[in-house]
Amino acid sequence: MSDRRSEWLDGVKQGIPIACGYFFVSFTFGILGASLGFRWWETVLISMTNLTSAGQVAGVWTIAAGGSAVELALSQLLINLRYSLMGISLSQNTDDDFTGVKRATLGFGITDEIYAVAVNRPKPVSSWFFFGLIFLPYFGWSLGTLAGALFGGVIPESVTNVMTLAIYGMFIAIVFPHMRKERGVLVVALLAAAVSCVMYVVPLLSRIPVGFRIIVCAVLAAVAGAILFPIPEIGGDGDA
Amino acid sequence: MPRFFAYAAVMMAVTYLVRAVPFTAFRRKVKNRFVRSFLYYIPYAVLMAMTFPAALFATSSLIVSSCGLVVAAVLAFRGRGLVTVSLGACAGAFAAMFVMWLIP
Question: For A179-209, what is each residue's pLDDT tens digit?
């Protein structure tokens, strides 16, 4: 029992910086929602039911533009497809008790940052640790959106403009430390960024919807990384 | 916005299923080295593809964005946390904006 408690608390503790970052980032999402004509509770509802940055931004743009449900569903699928890959990746490092209903429920909380923390954990991820980990970030994300939707209008546009960089700062904070330590990550990250920029610039390729572009770049870069810099075998049991 | 709830339901359903189904269904340990390597690299690749070039156009000017990103990169390379790097990105961009405002 104390084991559950300590696991949960360990998760909560590691979730604190994520929650702070989320509050800040979702504040800018709240501002965006308000500027697109959403009511405050609509923006907050989207944050509470989605818990994802890029997908939500694409979502409110599509809704505000009067896009179809199919377009909305497709954009969400493409942009959030990485969570499927993260879910599979994370399933490799969970303890024996973290199965079935627990996974179906807590799987809701897989985000880039939560995944990054969980997958970097030296010991297997328990359901209580994962529950603790998503606990504060969920409130951070929801409350930040609420604050942004209610008070964002008070802040001058030049300021809110710059604040949108926060979300990318968060992505950089996750990737760059690994780039320094591992050559594989360095090459994969540079390749993904380069291909993404090329696809943005080249006339025909730039017409590909942004969500799909991200998938193409990521798969290309990750395949290259897997071929050039395969990660070490588990325990050396010789299974290829 | 009566259609809002339909839109919100679609968003929620797709986002949830994309996350929970593979996570719940996948029980076996992947032993294939290529697949494990691919899964290891995919999040880094996704995040970088999302950051570039989108982050460069996040603010009103390319220079302002670049300054913010350089500050974030330096902080992240030094292993600083999520909040520090995020705030650093904004601070760097603000500084650049201020300098550009001083120089007409």
Answer: 999 999 999 999 999 999 999 999 888 877 6
Residue B68 near residue B89 (C-beta atoms within 8 A)? yes
- What does the alpha-carbon distance between residue B58 and residue B96 come to, in Å, rounded to a whole number? 14
Contacts of A225 in chain B (CB under 8 A): 37-38, 40-41, 45
As for the ipTM of the complex, it is 0.86
pLDDT classification of A161: cutoffs 50, 70, 90: confident
Q: What value does the mean pLDDT take over residues A140-155?
A: 92
Tell me the C-alpha distance between A234 and B38, whole Å: 15
Contacting residues for A130 by C-beta, under 8 A, at least 6 apart: A11, A94, A98, A106, A109, A118
Categorize the per-residue pLDDT at A237 as very low, low, confident or very high, splitting at 50, 70 and 90.
very low
Structure tokens at A239: 């299974």
Q: Under DSSP, is residue A182 helix (H, G, I), strand (E, B) or coil?
A: coil
Q: CB-CB: which of A51, A220, A230 is closest to B37? A: A230
Residue ranges per structural domain of chain B: 4-102
Burial (CB count <10 Å: 0-12, 13-18, 19+), residue B3: exposed
Q: How do the domains of chain A map onto residue ranges?
A: 2-173, 182-240
First to last CA, chain B: 45
Set of chain A residues whose Cβ sits within 8 Å of the Cβ of B48 = 171, 175, 188-190, 192-193, 196, 221
Weakest-pLDDT range from A37-46, A176-185, B52-61: B52-61
